[in-house]
Amino acid sequence: MIKKLLFLFLLLNSNHSKELTILHTNDLHSYFKGSLEKNESGVLRSGGYELLGQLINNTKSSEKEKGRFVLLVDAGDFYSGTLFHSIAMRADIPLFPEYEFFNTLDYHAITLGNHEFDGKDDGFALLMKKVKLLGAKVPIISTNYKTLKSKKYPIFNSKIITLKNGLDELKVGVLGALGPDGCSVSTGSRNENSFVGYKDKERRENWSELIAILSKESLKLKKMGSEVNILLLHGGGEEDELLAKKVRQIDSIISGHTHQVYIKEFGRTVVSQAGHYGKYLGRMPLVISKEGVTLSKEGPYHIKIQEGSDKSIAIENRIKVYERMTKKILEEEKIYLNGVRKFDKNYTKTTIPPVGTFIADRVLKEIKRRNKNVDIYFLPNGHIRNPIFKDYNYQVDDLFNVLPLGFHEGHHLGYKVVSFYLSYGDLVSLVDFLDIYSKFNKKAFPSYSSNLKYKIREWGIPFINRVKGLSIEKKQKSDFIKVATNSFLFSYLDLIKKKTFGVIKIVPRGENGEPIEKPTNLDSEVSYFLNSFN
User: Alpha-carbon distance 139 to 12, whole Å?
Assistant: First the structure.
């Protein structure tokens, strides 16, 4: 009788405030075993899903004990970044470890990041097939996602999630979006899959479209009874700030993509991001009342995963199963790197030589060892996910995590290495363009093998005299230069013509200097890199 009276009181007194704690992750990137980081005590392994999983369970319990509603969500890029991501791309293995993690911990919702498309359209279709096989228990929400009508993927435009707290309940409207930058960097991996707010063919953002669709959907959720609207946005920094200011019916934004740790308030909209690789669990405590949604001052807002914390034994045992699978996959990929490797110096993005040059040199060395005549190798710094630390015992999975991205035909590991010839003038223009473009997009900053020498004049005119003294050992200016890069970067060469309004056009050539449409395919980048240590 008392419970019935309490329930009736709550119904009549609908203006009472409610407390909601959003627990959130982003950019997990398949880091089941955690990632390496260096501090004053040396190099250690940070995070790990067995620690993160137990922290999530413990935090959920403590928040509920305080009488709060709890929502658990992820803001995308949960896939791609370690050897574990090789499992989901195998059609003969009915497992999807990353999605299974969300299932195990009862996430309420997740959204798509750009790296969920690393396996291209057919790889994404395989992931969605496995989501269905696993019961599609955790909803994937992406409001601005669109695909061919023939594709029926388990993806929602939005969803109202009803949370229970005793006899009380809270209706939470959840939206999802991939921001323009995430769309831009995944353009080469998507043909059948696209997103409102970005024009793939023109490679141009359209903020008005994105704002319009999010405004319409968020208003719809409010009319359906949502008491608080949450946007899972794979797009941080300026993107989440802009949407927080422009979309009025969104109360909170859980961000990803930029791998930062922050919590901010823009007007009445609270925005948070929880780093990357599962090193932090985001915690956003909100108070929902008739006046609106406000951020509680009770921290912490981000909980650092501590070594030695309680582990989830179930997740730890599952990781051991996955490890056995990855060892078999490496053998099938003909990557034979056993034991440990140590390095006598640190290779980071700021050391000399930087980690990018170190990698380019290793790949070039292995290409030449396999009797392929290539003059230089280059790759985008955005593909380098980790530094290399001095005196640490690196095993094959640690080295893979340095350069883990991409797949090639048949979903084999790594981007394909491609080679082609450039004239001296085109190589100068390419170096010049990449240097300028990387000032606007840091992920595009190139790393070249150390045998390419040049300087940049700060006062020079773009594409005329900014690049000074470019030279390659044993090559003359009159020679065609055989360059190699990965297939991802090659697919963006046409961007140069568009970005310079046709002023500059890089022409890939064959051995005799004739223009070609397709380059020569070599082995995978990860195969060259890892096998160079044998």
Answer: 32
- In this predicted structure, the answer to whether residue 438 has a pLDDT above a threshold of 70 is yes
User: Among 34, 30, 288, which Cα is nearest to 170's?
Assistant: 288
CA dist., res. 47 & res. 32, Å (int): 8
Against a cut of 0.85, is the pTM above it? yes
Q: Model confidence over 14-66: pLDDT tens digits? A: 557 999 999 999 999 999 999 999 988 889 899 999 999 999 999 999 999 99
SS3 416: strand
Higher pLDDT, 16 or 489: 489
Model confidence over 504-517: pLDDT tens digits?
889 999 999 999 99
Question: Can you tell me the distance from the alpha carbon of 434 to that of 496, in angstroms, rounded to the nearest whole number?
Answer: 9
Exposure of 251 by Cβ count < 10 A (0-12 exposed, 13-18 middle, 19+ buried)?
buried
Residue 382 near residue 115 (C-beta atoms within 8 A): no
**Between 313-332 and 49-65, two packed helices, what is the crossing angle to 10 degrees?**
150
CA 395 to chain CA centroid, Å, is 23
447 torsion bin: left (phi>0), alpha (psi -120 to 50), beta (else): beta
Report residue 511 as tokens: 């051995």
Q: Please, what's the b/e burial string for 291-325 (b: 16 or more CB within 10 A of its CB; e: otherwise)?
A: eebbbeeeeebbbebeeeeebbeebbebbeebeeb
Cα dihedral 88, 92, 95, 98, rounded to 10, equals: 0
DSSP state of 275: -
Residue 361, phi then psi, degrees to nearest 5:
-65, -40
CATH match for 338-531 among 3.40.50.12780, 3.40.50.920, 3.90.780.10, 3.20.20.150: 3.90.780.10
- Determine the Cα–Cα distance for residues 272 and 397; give it in Å rounded to an integer: 31
**Cβ burial, residue 446 (10 Å; 0-12/13-18/19+):** buried
- Give 210's contacts (C-beta < 8 A, 6+ positions apart): 144, 177, 179, 180, 196, 197, 198, 243
Q: Is the pLDDT of residue 12 over 50?
A: no
Cβ–Cβ < 8 Å for 230, 174: yes
Q: What is the pLDDT of residues 146-157, one digit of tens each?
A: 987 778 899 999
Yes or no: domain 22-316 corresponds to CATH 3.30.43.10: no
Give the residue extent of every domain in the chain: 22-316, 338-531
